[in-house]
Amino acid sequence: MSTGADKTEKATPKRRDEARKKGQVARSVDLNGAVVLAAGLLGISAFAPTVLDVMAGSLRTGLTRIAQPQELMTAAGLGSLFSSTAHDLLRGIAPMAAICAVAGIVANLGQVGIKPATKALTPDPKRLNPATGAKNLFGIRAVVEAVKSVAKVGAVGAIVALTLIPKLHELSTIVGSNPAAVASLLASTVLTIAQRAALAYLVIAAADFAYQRWRHAKSLRMTKQEVKEEFKQHGLPQEVKAALRRRQLQAARARMMAAVPTADVVVVNPTHFAVALKYDGTRPAPEVVAKGQDLVALQIRRIAEEHAVPVIEDKPLARSLHASVEVGRLIPEELYQAVAQVLAYVYRTARRAGGMHRRTA
């Protein structure tokens, strides 16, 4: 069974295409947000005067109509006021909203293309695996997200400080100025800060996108044997490929069943899942030597009972092991304690039975 260290070859086009169909693509959420933010600021810079004129006109019209309350005493008059105000608001915001929407679509398409991944919409119970969730919370991914958050907060803080400190004297002179001058200066300062923050966010997002591409490429790496097998099957008829897959599956299942008698314990659910574990002390953690569901699980259990391998019922552990660990792999750290308790129970039971190595539970 291959390990991560064995996967030294770049993914073939077929492997990348299969991953894409499953929705596994390199994508940075921060890049989408940065592009939309930058586009929104450009929209504000371009359409701010128009928006202000529209809003000012709407406000004047509203105040004029309110000054004649007799016109608003009817449902038609009040509805007309609300309708015209909403129309003006929509007319002022629509250009900037359209720019942000187009920018968001372009940013997504630029990262993942236009090929839809329908398989990504298919429900997958493995996504609910608590072991995978804990790995995302406490693994390298969480560290990267924490570094990005600190970088974003630090960049915004530095930009605000570098923008406001040189303008402190200028800001102090606006005391007593007319409202229009104050509003103009404050708007210019805020827009400058926002534009610089957006630029810094774009730099961080670009770095994140590069990291996501590297991480995605690393996750798709293949072993040399996998590359050889793929080239062997390339160009073969579908019937031959299906026959080869069936033969490989049968051979793998036969090897797996042959390893069940060597296991130290079989954890079951009690009939839907079965996982055989082996721990000989030479490896840092127990190894999954066989696993299966439904009929395969029943066969694993039958072979275990025939060879006096203890069969322990632990529904949560059986589900977690079956969902998160492949045959030939060591169990993850988050399952060490649960598996250790099962093995300790098996060893204690064997000692009480007079030194028998195994017993059937």
Question: What does this 3D model show about the protein?
Answer:
There is one protein chain. The protein has 361 residues and is mainly alpha-helical. Among the domains are: 7-146 and 208-219, no CATH class; 256-352, secretion proteins EscU (name from scop, 3-Layer(aba) Sandwich), CATH 3.40.1690.10. Helices cover 65% and strands 6% of the residues. The protein contains twelve helices and four strands. A four-stranded mixed sheet has the order 3-2-1-4, with helices on both faces. A hairpin with an 8-residue loop joins strand 2 (273-278) and strand 3. Helix 2 runs antiparallel to helix 3 (75-112) and helix 2 (29-66) runs antiparallel to helix 7. The protein is elongated and about 95 Å long. Residues 355-361 have low confidence and may be disordered.
SSE topology string: HHHHHHHHHEEEHEHH
Q: Reading side by side through the largest sheet, how are the strands ordered?
A: 3-2-1-4
Number of helices: 12
Low-confidence stretches: 355-361
Mean pLDDT: 79
Question: What gross morphology would you assign?
Answer: elongated
Spatial gap, N to C terminus:
30 Å
From the alpha-carbon coordinates, what is the Rg to the nearest angstrom? 32 Å
User: What does the main sheet amount to?
Assistant: 4 strands, mixed
